[in-house]
Specification:
The chain has 637 residues and is α+β, with helices and mostly antiparallel strands. 16% of the residues lie in helices and 33% in strands. The strands form ten sheets. Strands 2, 34, 35, 36, 37 and 38 form a six-stranded antiparallel sheet that branches. It has a five-stranded antiparallel sheet with strand order 1-6-5-3-39, with no helix packed on it. The longest helix has 16 residues, at 40-55.
Length: 637
Amino acid sequence: RSSSKRLSRETAGRGGGGGGEGNSMCRRQARDTSPCVLVSASCSSFLVLVLYALATSVPGCAMRVELKNAFCSPPRAPLPSQGLMRDSCRESLRHACTKKPVNHRRGAFLHWLSAGGGRHGADEDIRGKAFSKWWEESREQTLVPKKLQHKGVFPSFLNGLLLRNGPAIWSGKGRSYTHAFDGLAKLTKFEVKEGEVWYSSRFVRSQWYKRMVEEEEDAPKAISVGPTDPPLNQLDKLLALFNSDSFDNAPVNVHQLGGQLGPWVAVTDAPLAMEFDRETLETRGRLDKRYVNSVCQLGGLLLFSTAHPLPCPVTGQTINYFLELNVLQGNRALLVRTDDKLARQLVGSVRLAAGEIPYVHSFGLTRTGKAILMLCPLRMPPAALLNGSFMPSLEWCGEGEGDRTRIYVFDLKESKVEPSWTFEADPLFFYHCINAYEEEEEIVVELCGYNTPDIATSPHAFAYLPNMKDGQERKKQARDGSLYRMKLPLKQQGHVTVKKLEAPCDGMEMTFELPTINPQLVGKKHRHVYGYTGFGRGDESDFTEWAVLKISTDDDGVTSVLKWEEEQTYPSEPTFVPRPDGKEEDDGVVLVQMFDGKREESFLLCLDAKNMKEIGRAYTGQRSSPQFHGQFVQNNQ
């Protein structure tokens, strides 16, 4: 308690957080989950969710019968045993993914986390220990930017901020998260100018952060990505559904909402936005509660969004996907445009099958104003709203004669909200749409895709913390994605073929994730894709040999793959920064936040984007956990 109070005083003394953060009454209200003290909006959301989940779960219910006919595939068979699991946390994970009953030992994950769990002493090699260290919590903050010592050079044309977001704390007083996506959001900033680098970091001071860190309480009971340890009981799961409207942890990406005059926000796949100051990283508060208008129909509420909003090529405002859950009028997949005054406009809508809740993490948008919404046959059963965590509950409906991938194209220059073109393709799962562009009366879409959703739904999906820190479990890790390309003809609709583009390097097939391109070519034709791989040695890798990749393509496929790697060194998402007067697409540098396992320290890596050779690095003096997404912002923007 005393250390927590000191932390609170230090943060307040340095100007951390938004207004009203010291209000003890607010903290008590955030802790209280009793229905009698919650506002009517939360009660309405809760009732809609409960009615929806129960209506689709009770035997004989008309909606349940309709749902049974709507979903194409039978229930997923239990997955085979994945080997010996040494603590209740891993048993909880298997239970969530296989629906098998297991025994739990309360607090095992918290003990495992504090002890550097999953280690096997002499059986774990040096590389595995370095990798495990990367996935430990990083609670340290650098509130005042500090100048970094660097090796090599950072080109003089770099004049801006690299803003990044990712999870850094997973453990509460007695209950912890087991999935990396659930960690508390931590922002980092690298300011690069005149060849020098400054570094700062700060947690997003959400209600979740205040409860788990400042008040040293449990991880709040709310719907999470993965199961908690210890797992929620049935009453806790009902409370988790009730509390979901107050969820405000956004650890995935950053975005300037509404255009170049809009506020900066931290975002995730939930329909929330946490505003922060771009210069100081201080939290300003929850922004999504201040939208001017609703885009839902009567009886509806927004359940999901994506962590990858895009700027509208027509207006410069923000375009993003939302899932409207509506027990009265049926669910809808929505595309919504938001301006810098927080006014929203519905620009795309697809009526879904009864009870259908698709999982969507990103979408495509061409420079000509065509928005491409792709609905994979990966869905959340409505009854999963009562499970406490949603990722292990997702069901794959693409087996056998099951569903296809449905593709809807909207013309943002038109006033209608219905799709202008509709296509379907063979079943495919993807987290990230790399890019989409229009060429010769067709739309070309590139994805980092998968034939099955194991990367998201299996016991060895990315990224369960127990598996990340256990050498034997890492060997079973689901592989990264592959490069897929599809072409959507605008003169006809129907079935389209998705082509997998092989990406060999040093005689090995490279898989990859977190793909990025030259930001000047988003929505236009590109040739080069940058990403990381967790399998730098191909099939022989044990998920501890990571590398940064550059995949070059032409109209026929992949032409070359370049790789930067260093022993016991692990990258987050690479960010391409173009040279202002560059003549070629890859004329610029690639910035990557790295973890040096040998020094147990994070650093900013600068690569020549043409040949992927290192030209500079700057160590931060502290360790950061893996981060997900971000962007480079020029100082004059």
